[in-house]
Amino acid sequence: MVKHIVMFKFRDSTPELCAEAQKIILSMVGKVPQLRGLRADIDLLHSDRSCDVCLQADVDDMEALQAYAQDPYHCDVVKAFLGAHSISSVTADYEY
After folding, report:
1. DSSP string spanning 47-81?
2. How many domains does the chain have?
């Protein structure tokens, strides 16, 4: 299994925007076939070092991760929304 983690920092990190981002991320369940597990969590601390939302996705292997990265729903809906509101993001991918 591969864990894919992405943390997003938004221009305007209102509770409403964070909740909408969480909802849009979770909307991939049932629409993106490579996903074996998915979480979207909102930061509690809101410090200068904090990111606003953390996506954690589980996929079978690196081939599935590449397919997920190119999935039309993931790209056209989720990445489009997050990209429009993010000022930065960081990612980590690892096997477990």
Report:
1. -TT--SEEEEEEESSHHHHHHHHH-HHIIIIIIHH
2. 1
Nearest to 89 by CA among 54, 64, 63: 54
- Which CATH number is 8's domain given? 3.30.70.100
Check: CB of residue 7 under 8 Å from CB of residue 96: no
Residue 17 structural domain: 2-95
Q: What is the pLDDT of residues 1-42, one digit of tens each?
A: 999 999 999 999 999 999 999 999 999 999 999 999 999 999
7 Cβ contact partners less than 8 Å away, ≥ 6 residues apart: 51, 53, 54, 55, 89, 90, 91
Confidence of residue 54 (pLDDT cuts 50, 70, 90): very high
pLDDT of residue 88: 97
DSSP state of 1: -
